[in-house]
Amino acid sequence: MSAVVKWIGGSTLVALVLIGAMMFAGNRLEAQQQDNGMDGWLTAEDVLSDIPDQADLSLQEQIRVDPAALAAPASEPIFVSEPVVQDVPAYNEDNPFVIRRILPIEGPIRYGEWHWDDEGVPDGPLVITVDLQARVISVFRNGYEIGAAAALLGTRSHPTPTGTFPILTK
């Protein structure tokens, strides 16, 4: 007998046993009254004893719907949207945080994979950024992205610190 036939037969047997167990155990899942020391507590009869039998009430009385609540509103609400005007920051060519180029990377970056291209990039200040959402570390020189790699983040017990940090040694 081949391994595939054994696997299919074993899977079928397991499925049948599970279905049978659910059918026979279904009645056991119903709540059973237990003596758990709550005999002095309020019961449904204590709270609902003064309400008349539901069969004697009309549907509206059973649901307790206020007819005024069902009426259409006198007028539809009017939503007014103001345009958002945002000041554009002045362009500063010497600002190392102005991005001038992004590396053309196809697809997601996998852990251990890195991209580097500093050809033709002028000298200037280096800025390294970490995008926690994208899990990418990028290296910029004079606003041009020259390197990118996947970044490993911290855990819940040791979260990744955020902020601006100087590089002390390399």
Label the structural class.
alpha+beta
- Write down the overall geometry: flat
Uncertain residue ranges: none
**Beginning-to-end CA distance, first to last residue:** 63 Å
Round the Cα radius of gyration to an integer and report it.
34 Å
Regarding quaternary structure, how should these chains be classified?
single chain
Question: Which percent band covers the strand fraction?
Answer: 5-15%
Number of strands: 4
How many helical stretches? 4
- Major beta-sheet overview: 4 strands, antiparallel
Report helical residue fraction.
Answer: 10-25%
**Major sheet: arrangement of strands:** 1-4-3-2
Layout: helices, strands, pairs:
Blueprint: H1 3-25, H2 44-48, H3 59-63, H4 67-70, E1 114-116, E2 126-131, E3 136-141, E4 144-150
Antiparallel strand pairs: 1-4, 2-3, 3-4
Task: Walk me through the structure.
The protein contains four helices and four strands; from the N terminus they run ααααββββ. It has a domain at 95-170. The protein is an alpha+beta fold and 170 residues long. A hairpin with a 4-residue loop joins strand 2 (126-131) and strand 3. Helix content is 22%, strand content 13%. Strands 1-4-3-2 form a four-stranded antiparallel sheet, with no helix packed on it. The protein is flat. It starts with a helix and ends in a 20-residue tail after the last strand. The mean pLDDT is 75.
What's a concise summary of this model?
With 170 residues, the protein is of the alpha+beta class. The protein is 22% helix and 13% strand.
